[in-house]
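User: Run a structure prediction on this.
Assistant: Running it now.
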Amino acid sequence: MPIHLPTQNRREFLATVGVGILTFSTASFGAENTIEEDLVYLLNDTHIGEKHPENSPIPTHLRQIVSELVERPRKPATVLINGDLALKDGQPGDYRHFAKLIEPLQKAKINLHLTLGNHDHREVFYEVMQEQRPQEPVVESRHIAVVQTRFANFFLLDSLQKTMVTQGTLGDVQLKWLAEALDQNADRPAIIVSHHNPRLGGDPLHFPGGLIDSQPLWDVLQPRKQVKAYIHGHIHHRSLAKHGGIHIINTPATSYVGNPETSTTGWTTARLSPNGVKLTTHTNNTEHLWNDAVDQLEWRS
């Protein structure tokens, strides 16, 4: 469920009719020299815990990324942190610690959007960050939005089924909303962002904790040719796949990995163009073979 932390001075809020779409535009107003409109930062699986010591790896990894972002002379169009913000089951102290770690991004007026994963707890999160509770959610019990950037619209979905339940689900109501929202925002490539992996295409197929209604989702996405990619976390690994012409982008976790012999922690930058995206993986361990690895993806026609 996306939680949006806006920077008022350079974001336009758009109220729409019809299906009800909460839309955020990253258009810069008189700030073209300070924002890279084609650049998006992708993070996921921060797993911040209340009792993590300041110098322990998990908060240090996130702190490193935040510092790198804040120190950039030009800011990205937006930053997306895609779920599992909290360590295990979304305790209040977890979110207080997380809020402290991302505070420099807000002070630097960097556009930031968050989603929740299966280790988060929606109501506890809102209790800690009360100002982020939506007054009128466009889909009941889901908080979803469209984030507009220069070269793509990002559709942030809510795949959280229940805290500590590994599988995710979108549900019929959210899928109906998505179909209508895609039809109303067909002016540029669409990129879907959700915490859980689809059980379709490539290695994610073999991870049983993914999205239960993957095929119904693809039934919505595949016929709509503006849909180019689906971004997820959840697996704590890095991989690329494709299903029905749509890229499936699995980005590395910032917190920890299941198999340190093959994976490491980090984040991803996406540099968008009209015809595709250049993905660059950045790792906390700069000696890892993933560090600075580049994947150039072309959009389907």
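The first strand starts at residue 3 and ends at 5.
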